[in-house]
Write a sequence for this structure.
């Protein structure tokens, strides 16, 4: 007797997203929280990261190539994103890189990068379920405290947080990522500096 | 330096490996070498747990002292030192850490220090407290659940769950091992006495439930298994390739299996799904790690990486069901409605049906607890009743 694929199957299947629906053409990594909701990297014209917001199938765009990720002090399109990480409660983090001549002067200037003509602005986004959009958790204009010294992140040459390293988010919501600091840049200023935003 | 893993503790512990600028391990005696170490942070303060050259905690059987020896000296055992720590340590919310490393035995021959007997293993312990680290499995150990003489000869990066259980891919060698059966997946459970109990989950060449074939690598000596995921209840999800002919390589198809303690492996997605064949499938990022490889794609659910297997046993994956790349790609969540449905699928083909009933009848009057569904110590008509209910309950 030929069995129906669903007859007495142990698993039930829920399609979260499908190519040809809502403009999606491809999917990359997919993650799941303990409440059964998911996040994924996908392609919808361009690459982006989506998460189910509150109810199954309600996909929210968290970041997308070509769309501003709200880093820095001016609107710039996102050039690249990493795959996301998601914790057990459904919080999502990812790194994104924006295009543009950001580090010229003024409020957005970055001493580490001042000698380089073309720069990118990158950072880490974090999204809480229920929020309409992710917020900026860290960006290249921020600094870190180490050994009592304030050290700026290093956006020059490499695009800051976007070295292919994926930020990770613990179950309490804290985010960690491997990145470079100006401390190791020859000739780069090591003096404490203020945040640009 | 690697991508750190982060747990959910209030102090946001992280664990990562990093290299030092100077050669201190003396393993290579190369002044241009660098040493990798594993570091643990708490509230932003990093502590070195182990660095290459440190003593690797390896238990040994002490030789009895000679009662006639007027100057007895306790056997110190082999002096194993870490020789390579450049892999991906994992962490859970309690701060327990697990990692794979290579080691070598340090011996003094005359005035020279030499390193011999290269080996490797998986260790687990608590945070920066190096005294708590215990060996989980080591190259050369008998592989549990397999014939005598089958031993471990390599490991992938382990993942650790909320209770300190580990899951990992192992590379096998020894009696009867060849390119068709040299990889396996294991779960390690703390035994409460400082050690671990290892349980074989799957082996290359074994029947792949839900398919007409066997777990098989794409290439000779290639692993059919990707890095596994483990959840808080010890369920392990893993991606693998299978082939209908165990004597040949190549992928008969990709699939995902879920191992539940006490139940065994069931196919989450293999051979058919929604009535169609599977072209490709991806669990997590689909990347594997292991000796010489550097991508950590799996998770224990508390390491900040994101998981494809949640604590309720739900599995999310990316699947392509049509040969044309842009057609019928999906993100799918698989849930099992009831543990009893898993328990009654004895042949693990994804269904509870007459085939399972036949196996149950064959197990009558045996002591095989796998078929004792109601756990009353007897395999009888009461177990048959449970299976019949499972066959008609959906």
């Amino acid at each position: 007797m030929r069995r129906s694929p669903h007859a007495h199957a142990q698993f039930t299947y829920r399609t979260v997203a499908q190519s040809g629906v809502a403009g999606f053409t491809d999917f990359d990594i997919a993650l799941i929280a303990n409440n059964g909701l998911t996040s994924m990297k996908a392609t919808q014209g361009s690459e982006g990261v989506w998460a189910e917001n509150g109810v199954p199938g309600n996909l929210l765009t968290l970041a997308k190539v070509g769309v501003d990720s709200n880093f820095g002090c001016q609107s710039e399109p996102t050039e690249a994103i990493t795959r996301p990480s998601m914790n057990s409660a459904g919080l999502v983090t990812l790194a994104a890189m924006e295009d543009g001549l950001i580090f010229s002067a003024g409020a957005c200037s970055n001493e580490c990068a001042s000698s380089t003509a073309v720069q990118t602005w990158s950072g880490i986004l974090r999204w809480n379920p229920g929020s309409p959009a992710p917020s900026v958790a860290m960006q290249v204009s921020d600094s870190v405290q180490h050994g009592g010294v304030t050290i700026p992140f290093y956006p020059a040459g490499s695009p800051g947080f976007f070295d292919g390293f994926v930020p990770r988010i613990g179950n309490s919501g804290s985010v960690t990522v491997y990145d470079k600091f100006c401390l190791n840049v020859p000739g780069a200023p090591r003096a404490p500096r203020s945040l640009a935003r | 330096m690697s991508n750190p893993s982060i747990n959910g503790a209030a102090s946001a512990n992280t664990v990562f490996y990093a290299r030092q600028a100077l050669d201190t391990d003396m393993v290579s005696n190369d002044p241009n070498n660098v040493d990798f170490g594993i570091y643990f942070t708490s509230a932003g303060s990093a502590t070195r747990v182990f660095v290459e050259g440190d003593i690797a905690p390896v238990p040994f059987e002490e030789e009895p002292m000679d009662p006639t020896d007027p100057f007895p000296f306790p056997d110190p055992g082999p002096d194993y030192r870490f020789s390579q720590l450049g892999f991906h340590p994992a962490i859970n919310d309690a701060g327990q850490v697990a990692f794979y490393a290579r080691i070598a035995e340090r011996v003094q021959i005359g005035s020279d220090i030499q390193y011999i007997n290269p080996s490797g293993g998986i260790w687990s312990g608590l945070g920066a407290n190096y005294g708590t680290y215990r060996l989980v499995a080591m190259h050369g150990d008998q592989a549990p659940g397999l014939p005598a003489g089958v031993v471990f000869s390599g490991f992938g990066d382990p993942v650790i769950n909320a209770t300190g259980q580990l899951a990992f891919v192992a590379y096998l060698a020894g009696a009867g091992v060849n390119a068709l059966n040299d990889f396996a997946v294991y779960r390690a459970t703390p035994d409460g006495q400082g050690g671990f109990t290892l349980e074989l989950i799957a082996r290359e060449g074994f029947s792949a439930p839900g398919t007409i074939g066997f777990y098989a690598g794409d290439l000779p000596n290639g692993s059919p298994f990707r890095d596994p995921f483990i959840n808080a209840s010890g369920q392990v999800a893993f991606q693998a390739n299978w082939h209908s002919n165990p004597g040949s390589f190549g992928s008969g198809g990709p699939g995902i299996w879920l191992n539940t303690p006490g139940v065994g492996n069931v196919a989450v997605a293999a051979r058919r799904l929604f009535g169609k064949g599977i072209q490709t499938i991806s669990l997590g990022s689909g990347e594997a790690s292991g000796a010489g490889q550097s991508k950590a794609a799996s998770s224990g659910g508390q390491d900040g990486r994101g998981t494809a297997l949640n604590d309720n046993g739900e599995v999310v994956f990316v699947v392509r069901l049509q040969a044309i790349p842009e057609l019928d790609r999906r993100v799918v969540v698989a849930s099992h409605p009831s543990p009893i449905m898993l328990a009654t699928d004895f042949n693990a083909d994804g269904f509870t049906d007459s085939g399972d009933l036949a196996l149950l009848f064959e197990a009558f009057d045996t002591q095989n607890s796998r078929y004792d569904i109601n756990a009353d110590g007897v395999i009888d008509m009461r177990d048959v009743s449970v299976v019949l209910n499972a066959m008609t309950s959906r």
Confidence is low (pLDDT under 50) at residues 290-294 of chain B. Residues 189 and 197 of chain B are 5 Å apart (CA to CA). Chain B touches chain A through 64 residues (CB under 8 Å). The longest strand of chain B covers residues 112-126.
